[in-house]
Structure formats: structure tokens, C-alpha cells
Amino acid sequence: MTARIVSFESSHFAECERILAALPDWFGIPESNEDYLRNLTALPSWVALRNESVVGAITLETHSPRSHEVYFMAVAPSDHRQGVGSALLGHLESEARSQGGGWLHVKTLGPSNPDPYYARTRAFYLAQGFEPLFESPSIWGPENPTLVLLKRV
User: Fold this and answer.
1) Which 3 state secondary structure label does DSSP give 8?
2) What is the count of structural domains for the chain?
3) The CATH number of the domain where 87 resides is what?
4) Which helix (H) or strand (E) covers residue 74, if one does?
5) What is the pLDDT of residue 44?
6) What is the CA radius of gyration of the chain?
7) Is 49 helix (H, G, I), strand (E, B) or coil?
8) What crossing angle do the helices spanning 13-21 and 30-42 adopt, rounded to 10°?
9) Measuring CA to CA, how many Å separate 108 from each of 14, 17, 95, 140, 142?
10) How far is 77 from 19, CA to CA, in rounded Å?
């Protein structure tokens, strides 16, 4: 069953919080999680619903009229590899294009850190057509080298 993508509403908040809590290997920094949750209401955000339950969420940040960022995306562990992330990302890309966007970028943990969970994240974004732009130790610090990936939308 395909997930249905709808705009985030405050009634989705607790389920998004539950999804983050279920993903400690990706979302293990409490301060960052608070930011992600807070920005679900501050930035354009959408959720993926299956049987009216939230199984994923995504947030778009606009940096300039032609440059947008996947600020946050999470999918419930039970729904990994079921097309939910692709559906969320496809919706976000459509939104960026409708706003005149030319570029979509995302930041994730770089390959110089051998974390197996983030290797899966990078593989997902590469499969979605993103290309590595650069890795930097100065964005999130040397212990969390940041890889910036870019895609033309």
C-alpha cells in the first residue's frame, strides 16, 4: 500500500516524535531532534500516512528562490525500503519546483565516518539522483563530517 502525502498538522506531532525516538541510530542528538520537531511547524512540512498513521515526515527549507534544502526527513523503521522516503522526497521536489527551485540539497554524515546507518542514508540519496558536492569537517564539527549532496529539480 502506497503512503499518502499530506501537509503536516499539529495533530501529527506526537507520531513524528515517536518516529524520531524509534531511530536513535540516525536521530540521537536531543537538541537536534527538538529543532527538527519545532521546525515541522515553522517550515513547510509534510507527512506520509498509511492507514491514517504517520509513517514518515519531511521538511523543506528555502535558502534562496532557486535553492532549497531537505531540512529533515525520517521514516518509521517498519516502513524503511517500502517507498515512503521516495514518496516524501518526490513530493518535496515537486514543491521546490513549484516555487521556482532549481536546486535541492541535503546534508548528511559524510563517508569519512564509517557509520553503517549513514552509509544507508547516502545510498538512498544517491539512488534518488543526488550527487555529492563536498564533505566538510567545519559544518557540524570534525567528529561529524558533513556531506552536502545536490540535485537539480
Assistant:
1) coil
2) 1
3) 3.40.630.30
4) strand 67-75
5) 97
6) 15
7) strand
8) 150
9) 25, 20, 21, 10, 13
10) 8
What does the pLDDT look like over 91-126, one tens digit per residue? 999 999 999 989 999 999 999 999 999 999 999 999
- What number is the average pLDDT over the span 18-32? 93
DSSP H stretches of helix in 55-142: 84-98, 116-127
What does the alpha-carbon distance between residue 77 and residue 60 come to, in Å, rounded to a whole number? 22
Instruction: Please name the helix (run of DSSP H) or strand (run of DSSP E) that holds residue 75, with its range, or none.
Output: strand 67-75
- pLDDT tens, residue by residue, 41-86: 999 999 999 999 999 999 999 999 999 999 999 999 999 999 999 9
Cell numbers 524503511 correspond to what residue?
80
Measured distance CA(45)–CA(28) in Å, rounded: 21
Burial 91-121 (b: 16+ CB within 10 A, else e): bbbebbeeeebebbbbbbbbeeeeeeebeeb
What is the span of the domain harbouring residue 136? 4-152
- pLDDT beyond 90 at 1: no
Residue among 93, 32, 29, 23 at smallest CA distance from 58: 93
pLDDT score of 33 more than 70: yes
Q: What is the pTM of this model?
A: 0.95
Contact 76, 87 (CB under 8 A): no
